[in-house]
């Protein structure tokens, strides 16, 4: 029986040692892989092109100043003459008149 116990004890020691060594190798290898991944991420970050810079949008067009009272009347009279001569239809006259009155 003492020989059997000695054999079992020896097997337990060998198995325990093998497990400890295997775990240590696995942890060390995982650490190396993590270091490599970190190094690659750092290099990609260093050599990545800068983010795209966009130009600001152009300023909105300035609306034409509303015509003064005398100027507005003159333009409406010209539109009326064009309508009376048949150059503008009533719908075109109404559209242009609305543009002038709404500014």
Describe the fold and architecture.
The chain has 103 residues and is mainly α. The chain folds into 2 domains: 1-48; 69-102. It contains 3 helices and no strands. It has helices at residues 2-47, 69-84, 90-102. Helix 2 (69-84) packs antiparallel against helix 3. The longest helix has 46 residues, at 2-47. The model has no long low-confidence stretch (mean pLDDT 79).
Any key phrases for this structure?
single chain; about 100 residues; mainly alpha; 2 domains; about 75% helix
Shape: rod-shaped
Order of helices and strands: HHH
Report the end-to-end length measured between terminal Cα atoms: 112 Å
Class derived from helix and strand content: mainly alpha
Query: How many β strands by DSSP?
Result: 0
How many structural domains? 2
Radius of gyration: 45 Å
Q: What would the average pLDDT be, to the nearest integer?
A: 79
Residues in helix, %: over 70%
Query: Uncertain spans, ≥5 residues at pLDDT below 50?
Result: none
Main β-sheet: number of strands, strand sense, barrel status? none
Tally the helices: 3
Strand content: under 5%
